[in-house]
Specification:
By secondary structure, this protein is an alpha/beta fold. The protein has 17 helices and 15 strands. It has a three-stranded mixed sheet, sandwiched between helices. Strands 3-4-5 form a three-stranded mixed sheet. The two termini are 39 Å apart. Its EC number is 3.5.3.23.
Length: 445
């Protein structure tokens, strides 16, 4: 049996826009109200996904959310025709309309937490959609996310799907952006790292003062229980609250791991050495490569601006590891110098590949945000909805679909355009047929 890690990237939706919705996310906030290019954004994401497939990686795509989300606008009291609802919301509650048009589901690192069958008690691959309760615009995603995941991983013999955690701040859960799995080989039992920003039930525990901590210890522990993980293969690490206050809203902005490598910034965690000792002890006899980036070489500001740690580390078919980085890392002198040095240090990371994902970066997410990691074996891969897996035919078809349905310019004011509803629903209805997803959206019910 073969084992590997698949990446399922979020397909950028037709309403990709810069509304500046995410307090604590420096890039999102600083680009608020800029004019976006949904067509370019979608094509940049598809190009990155296809490039990884061409490298020999298993690569899938996850469908975007339905936006504008008129179902939520109706839930909060707006009524009338679709056009009337948009018009009323734009006039009476523009911030709520922007939230209901969010493009953030493209960042599937926040879609769910995934535990592979090698780690779980029942030997199934487990998925729990993130509840994303800290941000209104993301808190409306989990039900549809669950539908899309169930339509993608649609075999109960191999996959177990859980409901998202209770919608309360005590269980704030941001998905795989705060979860890393280390292992010797993808088919071996690994060590699952859950990184949290605060303890909801302990008012005396450290927490940030300026920006919110979006992941709680209690949420991480609940997911470990749901997924049937043992104490022997879980480690809980506290994020450094000071770096959260400097714009590190998720752990994947300050650390990233793959197999026996944890690549992290010097200031990423609290109680670092004790926690790393625990990781190594639970990992076993093989060595974990803890690759620390010193503050003296890369500041927190440069790490956040460039998204040095919001890169993907992948294991190529050759066995070498490579970093998939945004071109922003090339454009930052300190970060580019560090990455050039990194590949000479004798670690498992041997190369860096750069991709232009600026439309995503300007909205606050880099290459790692765009993908959900799923370690699996070939039997499980055969049980996945094959129409969601990247190949030449799907790449061609999805690019043609984007050309047909997406605008190349979208401002925040355009979100009130009733035509956008028709365009978006027409596109998504066709997409569910391309990817054979069935009726996953509210408008299809």
């Amino acid at each position: 049996m073969k084992h590997f890690e698949a990446n399922f990237d979020g397909l950028v939706g037709p309403t990709h826009n810069y509304a500046g919705l995410s307090f604590g996310n420096v890039a999102s906030f600083s680009n608020a109200s800029a004019v976006s290019d949904p067509k370019s954004a979608a094509k940049q994401g598809l190009k990155k996904a296809k490039a990884l497939a061409d490298m020999g990686m298993v690569q899938g795509m996850l469908a975007p959310q339905e936006r504008p989300d008129l179902h939520t606008l109706r839930r909060i009291g707006f009524s009338g025709t679709d056009a009337e609802i948009l018009n009323k919301a734009a006039k009476e509650a523009p911030a709520l309309l922007r939230a209901c048009c969010s493009a953030s589901s493209m960042w599937t690192a926040n879609a769910a937490t995934v535990s592979p069958s090698a780690d779980t008690q029942d030997g199934k691959l487990h998925f729990t959609p993130a509840n994303l309760v800290d941000k209104l615009h993301r808190s409306i995603e989990p039900v549809t996310t669950g539908n899309i995941l169930a339509a993608t991983f649609n075999n109960s013999r191999h996959f177990s799907h859980h409901q998202h955690l209770p919608e309360h701040s005590s269980f704030g859960d941001e998905g795989a952006a705060n979860h890393t799995r280390l292992c010797e080989n993808y088919g071996n039992a690994g060590v699952e790292l859950f990184v949290y920003g605060q303890e909801a039930t302990n008012p005396n525990a450290p927490k940030p003062q300026k920006y919110p901590a979006r992941q709680t210890l209690e949420a991480s522990q609940a997911i470990a229980r749901l997924h049937g993980l043992s104490e022997e293969n879980t480690v809980y690490l506290s994020q450094n609250p000071d770096v959260i206050d400097q714009g590190v809203f998720h752990n994947d902005v300050i650390a990233v791991g793959n197999q026996n490598v944890l690549f992290y910034h010097q200031q990423a965690f609290l109680d670092t050495q004790n926690k790393f000792d625990e990781i190594q002890q639970k990992f076993g006899d093989s060595k974990v490569h803890f690759i620390e980036v010193p503050t003296a070489k890369v500041s927190i500001e440069d790490a956040v601006k460039s998204y040095l740690f919001n890169t993907q580390i992948i294991t190529l078919p050759s066995g070498e590891m490579a970093i998939i980085a945004p071109t922003n890392c090339q454009e930052n002198p300190a970060v580019f110098a560090y990455l050039n040095e990194l590949v000479t240090l004798g670690t498992p990371i041997k190369q860096v590949n750069y991709f232009d994902v600026k439309q995503s970066m300007q909205n606050g997410g880099g290459p790692a945000c765009l993908r959900l990691r799923v370690a699996m074996n070939d039997m499980e891969l055969a049980a996945v909805n094959q129409n969601t897996l990247m190949n030449d035919a799907l790449f061609t078809r999805l690019n043609a679909w984007v050309d047909k349905h997406y605008r190349d310019r979208l401002s925040v004011d355009d979100l009130a355009d009733p035509q956008l509803i028709i365009e978006s629903r027409t596109a998504l209805d066709e997409l569910t047929q391309i990817m054979k997803l069935g009726s996953v959206y509210q408008f299809q019910k």
